[in-house]
């Protein structure tokens, strides 16, 4: 995989993961408005949160690790590792941008 495609792919994968995380954050910010805060839901809330956690780990894992693992297993070990590291670097950048945005509020 050539370097420009690798960098673009890692950016798009990380952007997709960031978009998914943003949607989950928006959902969680509005969860009480959507579902209410009744006592009888006490068991279902942790269940739903753990299911959401597992779903999120699967989605983000597929976005960040899917293609690098396929490249690695297809014998393109160097490209697979580079794609993974570039994806993590993009995620770090998006994380720093989010913390900077929080500090400006």
Walkthrough of the structure:
The protein is 86% helix and 0% strand. 16% of the residues are buried. It has helices at residues 3-29, 31-35, 44-73, 77-104. α1 (3-29) packs antiparallel against α3. The protein has one domain. It is mainly α and 105 residues long. It is built from four helices and no strands. The termini are far apart. The mean pLDDT is 92.
Radius of gyration (Å) = 17 Å
Outline type: elongated
Low-confidence stretches: none
What fraction of residues sit in β-strands?
under 5%
* Annotation, overall tally of beta strands: 0
With helices defined by DSSP (H or I, 4 residues minimum), what is the helix count?
Answer: 4
Largest sheet report: none
Total number of domains:
1
Please bin the fraction of helical residues: over 70%
Q: Strand-and-helix sequence, N→C? A: HHHH
The secondary-structure class comes to mainly alpha
Kindly report the average pLDDT value. 92
Q: Terminal Cα separation, in Å?
A: 41 Å
């Amino acid at each position: 995989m050539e370097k420009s495609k690798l960098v673009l792919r890692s950016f798009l994968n990380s952007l997709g993961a960031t978009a998914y995380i943003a949607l989950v954050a928006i959902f969680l910010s509005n969860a009480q408005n959507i579902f209410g805060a009744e006592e009888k839901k006490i068991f279902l809330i942790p269940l739903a949160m753990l299911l959401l956690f597992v779903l999120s780990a699967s989605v983000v894992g597929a976005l960040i690790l899917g293609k690098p693992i396929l490249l690695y297993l297809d014998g393109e070990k160097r490209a697979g590792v580079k794609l993974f590291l570039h994806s993590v670097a993009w995620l770090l950048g998006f994380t720093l941008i989010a913390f900077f945005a929080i500090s400006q509020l």
